[in-house]
Design brief:
By secondary structure, this protein is α+β, with helices and mostly antiparallel strands. The chain is built from 19 helices and 11 strands. The strands form 3 sheets. Strands 1, 2, 3, 4, 5 and 6 form a 6-stranded mixed β-sheet that branches. A 3-stranded antiparallel β-sheet has the order 10-9-11. Strand 7 and strand 8 form a beta hairpin. The protein is globular, with a radius of gyration of 25 Å. The protein starts with a helix and ends with a helix. Bound molecules: manganese (II) ion (MN). The site of manganese (II) ion has 4 residues, from loops.
Length: 476
């Protein structure tokens, strides 16, 4: 056994001793949890210091072990990471809902940012911690389950997405969604199963046709089916008015090839077999997504009128799409760690430059300089839009939110009396989808009361429950 493994063994010993006599809600000894976090971090290919910090992540908060003990035993870097995770959970206390990430808890948010900005590995440990907590959520009382699940869906899964950790995002979102909306989850899961069963035979045929052609052209490839996750289907259905027929990537075939040239060759070959659908070719290789995701997507119509999406990428792109930042740690471990110590981050994939931004911001905050927090939040919560009241207060809403969603978020008294809305100073319809950065002014009248037609003009559950409540009270 190498010296490295001795360090990890030592960490396990120390954590086991520190957590002795503590139990999880599942009834198991507490050490099960840090050991599970260790396993997750190892699976992600994280460096040794991160794994050790993962083993020790709950000791400073929950046991007699001190940061100094950890520093003496494992060095500065491990102590630094454990401290970051501890700070993160302190900062997070009292801001379980994304709603409370707003100005009133700005200080907590700042602390969270500083903790993250110091070393992004803190966040990776936190994500592993949250993943295991989600996997064992059934042991908690229902109200806690809902809270943790909701927070995971609204904060942690989007963060995983920002780090392009695709596998993690999918697992977290699906685990959490099951608790947030169990009926919807079951319904969609069923829908996906049925659809896949129906599609499996035609997919097998398409897979064979494509494989034969690629072989003939001497392209080295792997091909496999990729099934859409429940939560991403849920989100997509919301975008397409719940019409499943408008969702073309329910099942997709993924082709992994050796290099970028082969990606484009493969695209051409697929288009020579099947008719590409207009406007459905997306070249994320030339133009990667903000989180660094790269692939070519194309949706085609086969001779039998089946609609299939293909995703074409190289091995590196595939690895990065599934494991994201963790993958780049794995590949650049030494350099990356060294550069972190020196405060340099140029070995991050260029598309994860937002992390650079985050770290620069953290540095500014530590020096007491002013920063643009709005911009920072945008980067972290990609599925949300930020809109302003005329006074400059900022509200975050899900993408696609309408003026009534905004009004009810301000106050149900305002929501109940909406007469009209001015968006960026112009009178606008209540059906107008709010855009990121809009200034929204709600006009009210005492005589106005909620109408049932308003239920068509909202997308947030919050506004829905307020409107239903008002309608019911007024009917009595
Ligand atoms: Mn934990």
């Amino acid at each position: 056994m190498s010296k490295d493994n001795e360090r990890i063994k030592r960490a396990v010993e120390i954590a086991t001793k520190a957590h002795e006599g503590q139990f999880r809600k599942t009834g198991e000894p507490y050490i099960i949890h840090p050991m599970a976090v260790k396993k997750i971090l190892e699976d992600w290919g994280m460096d040794e210091d991160t794994v050790i910090a993962g083993i020790l992540h709950d000791t400073v908060e929950d046991t007699d072990l001190t940061l100094n003990d950890i520093k003496k035993e494992f060095g500065e870097s491990v102590a630094f990471l454990v401290d970051g995770v501890t700070k993160l959970s302190t900062a997070r206390n009292g801001m379980r809902d994304i709603d409370s990430y707003l100005p009133q808890t700005k200080d907590n948010f700042l602390r969270l940012m500083i903790a993250l900005g110091d070393d992004i590995r803190v966040l990776i440990i936190k994500l592993a911690d949250r993943l295991h907590n989600l996997r064992t959520l059934s042991a908690l009382p229902p109200d806690k389950q809902k809270k943790i699940a909701k927070e995971s869906l609204e904060v942690f899964a989007p963060l995983a997405d920002r780090l392009n950790m695709g596998l993690l995002r999918v697992e977290m979102a699906d685990l959490a969604f099951k608790y947030v909306d169990p009926k919807r989850y079951d319904y969609l899961e069923d829908l996906i199963k049925k659809y896949n069963k129906q599609a499996s035979r035609s997919l097998a045929k398409i897979e064979k046709e494509v494989s034969d052609l690629l072989k003939k052209e001497k392209i080295h490839f792997r091909i496999s089916g990729r099934v859409k996750s429940v939560y991403s289907l849920h989100k997509k259905m919301a975008k397409h008015d719940q019409n499943i027929n408008e969702i073309y990537d329910l099942t997709a075939l993924r082709i992994i090839v050796d290099d970028i040239t082969d990606c484009y060759l493969t695209l051409g070959l697929i288009h020579s077999l099947y008719m590409p659908m207009d406007g459905r070719i997306k070249d994320y290789i030339a133009m990667p997504k903000q989180n660094g995701y790269q692939s070519i997507h194309t949706t085609v119509i086969t001779k039998d009128k089946h609609i299939v999406e293909f995703q074409i990428r190289t091995n590196e792109m595939h690895e990065f799409a599934e494991r994201g930042l963790a993958a780049s740690f794995y590949y650049n471990e030494q350099k990356l760690t060294e550069n972190y110590k020196k405060g340099k981050i140029e070995h991050l994939p260029t598309n994860l430059l937002w992390i650079t931004e985050l770290q620069a911001t953290a540095a500014k905050l530590r020096e007491g300089k002013k920063v643009d927090l709005k911009k920072l939040k945008l980067n972290l919560f990609a599925d949300r839009i930020f809109v302003y009241t005329p006074k400059g207060d900022i509200l975050d809403l899900p993408k696609g939110a309408l003026p009534l969603d905004f009004a009810y978020r301000l106050h149900s008294e305002i929501g109940d009396h909406v007469m009209g809305v001015k968006i960026n100073g112009k009178m606008s319809s209540l059906n107008t989808k709010l855009q990121h950065g809009d200034v929204v002014e709600i006009l009210t009248s005492k005589n106005q009361i909620p109408k049932s037609s308003w239920l068509e003009k909202i997308i947030t559950p919050h506004a829905r429950s307020k409107i239903l409540h008002s309608l019911n009270t007024r009917n009595k």
